[in-house]
Write a structure and sequence with these properties.
Layout lengths: L8 E5 L2 H4 L19 E3 L2 E4 L2 E3 L2 E4 L19 H9 L5 E7 H5 L15 H16 L3 E8 L19 H12 L5 E4 L14 H14 L1 E5 L2 E5 L3 H9 L7 E4 L10 H4 L8 E8 L7 H14 L2 E7 L6 H12 L3 E4 L23 H12 L1
Parallel strand pairs: 5-6, 5-14, 6-7, 7-8, 8-11, 11-12, 12-13, 13-14
Antiparallel strand pairs: 1-9, 2-3, 3-4, 9-10
Helix pairs in contact: 2-4, 5-7
Length: 370
């Protein structure tokens, strides 16, 4: 989830050889043997011949606790976590991760204790994911906080960094390649305001090329850094032999998918889905708006709303969003399965036994009816 206040970013596009990549073929290579686990078929997720939607929650903590020196998790043991989530009739959990904690990196200003980083973090997160999977839940692992060399990964930056993000995904893919029930969410919420000469259309194209191919990013709270494009992260995953589904985000904190189809990275396996984040402050809730903005993408590839939520402790917005998503066979996961104030999280639960907040009641009722 993003803070409501945005950060101004200036981006310069990568070299022309990268930005001139051909339009992506969104279909899988027909010569590949069919997957027996979760995989993409056209615009559907399928597992063992049955259509699947990822319907569930986010569980926050693993992106921030480690880098703040307070631990690794925020919440109960994995078995208790899984059982309470399953009681909501959910089938999926999204787990946000921290690049520096996973890789064992340390930058000035990070309160990173060795007990919560490197092998300790990797072992703990791997154990969590495996336990959630053992309980029958699909798991989405998400690169949530990342930062270039010398910058602490203790908040959200506009793009993943070229210094470490490919190493992160190579390691993640190596770790989980044996279980295609683990989905790889390449980057949480890219946000780019591109300063370039020319028309607004040119600026938009530059931003989408930056997202795919990488670029030089300047932000108010970090020195300029070279970002990793989504193509390099797909390549890092596939270089390990992993067949797992990858989620590719859009712009504007992943609420803008207008250029997604024309600028999606190339996946030789065709195992890509589009990542969408929708909140009540995203500016789109009516059916016609949602269909106009996201209908074409949902018709082309699986659409996964990895975060939905609202900061008013109500559920009118997510009710409308979920109803639209049901009609278009899209997936959605509520933010977040944490015991925060539902105005500031927003939080789905008051306690880890699954007691819902007024906002969480909307998701619970909807999942119970499906």
């Amino acid at each position: 989830m993003r803070a409501v206040a945005s950060v101004v970013v200036v981006a310069a596009c990568a070299a022309a050889s990268a930005s001139s990549a051909p339009r992506v073929d969104l279909t899988a290579d027909a010569s590949l043997p069919p997957s027996v686990g979760l995989h993409v078929e056209r615009n559907r997720l399928v597992d063992r011949g049955a259509s699947v939607r990822l319907l569930g929650v986010n569980h926050s903590g693993t992106e921030y606790a480690c880098v703040k020196g307070t631990g690794i998790f925020d919440g109960p043991p994995a078995v208790d976590l899984a059982r309470a989530i399953l009681a909501w009739h959910a089938n999926a959990v999204r787990i946000p991760l921290n690049e520096h904690c996973w890789l064992g990196l340390h930058s000035a200003g990070e309160n990173l204790d060795h007990r919560f980083a490197g092998p300790s973090y990797r072992d703990a997160v791997t154990g969590l994911v495996r336990e959630l999977r053992a309980q029958g839940l699909y798991v989405v692992v998400d690169l949530h906080w990342a930062a270039p060399e010398g910058v602490p990964a203790d908040h959200q930056l506009p793009m993943p960094d070229a210094d470490h993000a490919s190493d992160f995904w190579h390691s993640i893919a190596t770790t989980f390649s044996g279980d295609v029930g683990v989905v790889f969410d390449l980057f949480n919420e890219p946000f780019l305001d591109v300063a370039a000469e020319g028309t607004a259309q040119t600026q938009s194209v530059d931003a989408w090329r930056c997202l795919r191919d990488g670029c030089l990013v300047s932000t108010l709270d970090a020195p300029p850094y070279r970002s990793a494009g989504m193509q390099s992260l797909v390549d890092a995953v596939r270089s390990t032999g992993a067949r797992n589904v990858v989620l590719v985000p859009g712009l504007a904190y992943s609420s803008d998918l207008s250029g997604w189809i024309d600028h999606a990275p190339h996946d030789p396996l065709g195992q890509m889905a589009a990542s969408l984040h929708l909140y009540n402050f995203s500016g789109c809730s009516a059916d016609d708006c949602l269909s106009q903005r996201y209908g074409a993408v949902a018709a082309a590839v699986p659409l996964v709303a990895g975060e939905i939520g609202e900061n008013d402790c109500g559920h009118a917005f997510i009710d409308a969003t979920m109803t639209w998503a049901d009609t278009h066979r899209a997936s959605y996961l509520g933010w977040a399965w944490n015991t925060w104030d539902c105005h500031h999280g927003p939080a789905l639960i008051e306690s880890y036994d699954g007691k819902p907040t007024p906002y969480g009641e909307g998701l619970l009722r909807h999942l119970s009816r499906r």
